[in-house]
From TrEMBL:
One of its GO terms (molecular function) is transferase activity. This is Glycosyltransferase. The lineage of its organism: Bacteria, Pseudomonadati, Bacteroidota, Chitinophagia, Chitinophagales. Keywords: Transferase. InterPro entries: Glyco_trans_2-like, Glycosyltransf_2, Nucleotide-diphossugar_trans. Residues 4-159 form the Glycosyltransferase 2-like domain. It comes from Pseudobacter ginsenosidimutans. SUPFAM superfamilies: Nucleotide-diphospho-sugar transferases.
């Protein structure tokens, strides 16, 4: 089973080495790592070229990170596609073999796991833990979503359900997973283990203003899929993030 990993980069020299190293150390035998760069001005491309495992590298202007991810998905040749951001990294060398084992069941269309936010520099320091839990049909109504960097998808699911919607900025990953899991009803399997560490910070959480914009985008994600959330759904989503501070 070939697994394609898409990493979008732009001026990522400070963190990309950790991302590349964690892919290089994976024990799964068939990995396609695709780097989609937005014409970085720093040493990102120099660092990427130090890693011979990288299967494909393009560097060109784009319309943002989700446009870059879409390019990577369209280039992917793997049976399964995952997204790993340029400041994220896998927790151990068996992550992709664990994912492949979950996909050995042909009925499984998607897989997700747990994630930890870590200090941007002291990455051994855990800031909060995103314990996703089992997905049920009504989970999205209660503010649930899986951690996107742990979300792996069979390539044909993208062909059926489509790519990231560029009309959204911070909620494009939420909308994609809502569409795949809830609207299209694709099957999923939960791996109850932390597979990804993400440096703390992010577009939707950077300020109160950004959080308000993210909530509006979350509402739009439902509307784009002709779905109607409960009146409390969009309030529960950020509350779940607060709860993660108390999970270890």
């Amino acid at each position: 089973m070939k697994i394609s990993i898409i990493t979008a980069t732009y001026n990522s020299a400070a963190t990309i080495r950790d991302t590349l190293s964690c892919i290089a150390m994976q024990d799964h035998p068939d990995i396609e790592h695709i780097i989609v760069d937005g014409v970085s001005k720093d040493k990102t491309l120099e660092i990427v070229r130090e890693f011979p495992h990288v299967a494909k590298l393009i560097s060109e202007t784009d319309k943002g990170i989700y446009d870059a991810m879409n390019k990577g998905v369209q280039m992917a040749q793997g049976d399964v596609v995952g997204i790993l951001n340029s400041d994220d990294f896998y927790t151990h060398a068996h992550v992709l073999s664990t994912v492949a084992e979950a996909f050995s069941n042909p009925a499984v269309q998607t897989v997700y796991a747990d994630l930890q936010y870590v200090h941007p520099v002291q990455t051994e320091k855990v800031v909060r833990t995103w314990k996703a839990g089992q997905y049920r049909k009504n989970s999205f109504y209660y503010g649930w979503m899986p951690p996107h960097p742990t979300f792996f998808v069979r390539r044909e699911v993208y062909e059926q359900a489509g790519l990231f919607n560029l009309a959204l900025r911070s909620a494009a990953d939420y909308e994609l997973m809502l569409r795949i899991l809830f609207r299209y009803g694709c099957s999923t399997e939960y791996i109850p283990e932390v597979l990804v560490k993400m440096r703390a910070g992010g577009m939707s959480n950077a300020s109160f203003k950004n959080r308000l914009r993210a909530n509006r985008e979350d509402a739009l994600a439902w509307k784009l899929n002709n779905l109607e959330p409960y009146f409390f759904t969009l309030y529960l989503k950020p509350i779940r993030k607060i709860q993660q501070l108390f999970v270890r």
